[in-house]
Write a structure and sequence with these properties.
nine-stranded antiparallel β-sheet; four-stranded antiparallel β-sheet; 19 strands; globular; disordered N terminus
């Protein structure tokens, strides 16, 4: 909580996922017909260990792959030719990627710039790395009177509290004091001081957050409470950006940030966006599982890159708010949901709960699906709930 293979560019304008360069950046239009292009991008699950200072797009759980083929069965004519455009900007401690189809470069860039502006505004509001953010100003008033907050922050906190109740605290945005200690642990390679961890744990508890819908106020009941939206804010931002694109007439689009992906209508001639899920035991290997999605979202929570080994024990960046301890062992939870706000928070909750309780939670929520992978002495074990059957995806030779 809380806390693929790269395609070589074919021209100087085409974006390469790990290629440094100025931001924003966008690709030239890719004609819909008679062109074969592969697009592959890996996203960092949840938040980077170094927070905002670490801008890496490598992340081995969720690999977005979009394949265009010459075959008539997969590419069909459109009354109005659309070009494919890709944009990237750094926000929320990671890179946000937008892939969209538009009639021309001007329309594509206008829409993408508006979407990124929306993400930037949410970052300003919900960052727990900026003392000036609305979230940190709210935390600074913990133990005081109710605070009126913006509509966006209010909506996120309402969704967060709902997930906290449904998961019995496995997802809990009040975990901020504990998260900060484990961040230092990952940097120092030393476990948090037990006394400080116990004190931080006493500040955690979603029941200490009071929300008043009538006045749009939030009250943090205990002094010293710190909110951390790392398990939900990027999902909310992806949803918000997708909404902005639709307001600009762009319905065939994908927005990805960290381990969260929100998609709209399918690309021209396709039945959905193809998402590849890399194997847990070898996150850099080619994906073994693919799904096709449209008008939905998918998120993965896990520790493939964000972890620390101390005294031969692997500690995840994912924290169990109920115990204050980082998860140990290797696991990942991939969630499909109607929106990215839900998939983001639910992926974290399921990762913390484990397969039995986690998939029970998934089954209680309409429109959600789960793939849980864990490492055992006998190899990896996969447990699914309503997850789509594997889709076929074959990269170009």
């Amino acid at each position: 909580m809380f806390g693929g293979q790269k395609q070589k560019p074919e021209s100087s304008e085409q974006y390469a996922p790990d290629q440094p360069g100025p931001f924003p950046h966008y690709c030239s239009a890719i004609p819909e017909q008679n062109d074969v292009r592969d697009y592959e991008l890996c996203y960092d699950a949840k938040r980077s260990a170094m927070g905002r200072s670490r801008m890496r797009i490598r992340v081995p759980f969720l690999i977005l792959m979009y394949w265009l083929w010459n075959g008539a069965s997969l590419i069909c004519a459109s009354p109005r030719a659309l070009g494919r455009f890709e944009f990237v900007e750094p926000h929320m401690g990671t890179r946000f990627q937008i892939v969209l189809y538009a009639p021309d470069a001007a329309a594509a860039q206008r829409a993408a710039q508006a979407a990124f502006a929306r993400i930037a505004a949410l970052d300003d509001s919900m960052s727990d790395y900026r003392a000036s953010s609305e979230l940190m100003r709210l935390s600074a008033q913990s133990g005081g009177a109710p605070v009126r907050v913006s509509e966006d922050l209010f909506r996120v906190l309402v969704a967060a509290q709902d997930m906290a109740r449904r998961s019995d605290g496995a997802f809990d945005v009040t975990v901020g004091p504990v998260v900060r200690l484990w961040r230092m642990a990952r940097l120092s390679h030393k476990l948090p001081d037990p006394v400080r961890l116990a004190a931080a744990k006493k500040l955690v508890g979603y029941g200490r957050v009071q929300i008043d819908a009538r006045t749009r106020t939030v009250q943090l009941l205990a002094p010293g409470m710190i909110l951390d939206l790392g398990g939900i804010a990027k999902g909310y931002a992806a949803d918000a950006a997708l909404t902005v694109l639709k307001e600009h007439g762009i319905t065939r689009a994908l927005v990805a940030g960290g381990g969260d992906i929100a998609v709209g209508d399918s690309p021209p001639g396709e039945d959905g966006w193809t998402i590849g899920i890399a194997p847990l035991e070898s996150p850099d290997a080619a994906p073994q599982r693919f799904v096709h999605l449209h008008d939905a979202a998918i998120s993965t929570s896990g520790d493939a890159e964000q972890h620390v080994e101390i005294d031969a024990i692997r500690y995840s960046h994912v924290i169990d708010p109920r115990t204050g301890q980082a998860l140990t062992g290797r696991r990942s939870a991939t969630i499909i949901a109607p929106n990215s706000t839900t998939s983001d928070a639910l992926a974290t909750a399921v990762c913390v709960l484990g397969p039995q309780s986690g998939l029970k939670l998934v089954n209680s929520l309409p429109g959600t699906e789960a793939l849980f992978v864990t490492e055992t002495p006998r190899g990896t074990k996969t447990i699914e709930s309503r997850f789509p059957p594997p889709a076929r995806a074959k990269p170009r030779p």
